Amino acid sequence: MNIKAIIFDMDGVMFDTEKLYRKAFVAIAKRWGWENEVTEEFMDSNIGKSKKDICTRYKALLDAKSIAINGREFDFDEHLKQVYAFIDNHIETKGTIVKEGLLELLSFAKENNLKVAIGTSENHKKVQFYLEHANIPMDIFDTIVCGDMVQHGKPAPDIFIKACKELSVKPEEAVVLEDSLNGIIAAHRAGTKPIMVLDCIKPTDEIIKILFFKPLNSLLEVAKIIKQQNEAT
Question: For residue 228, what are the CA distances in angstroms to 2, 139, 190, 232?
Answer without folding.
Answer: 10, 28, 23, 6
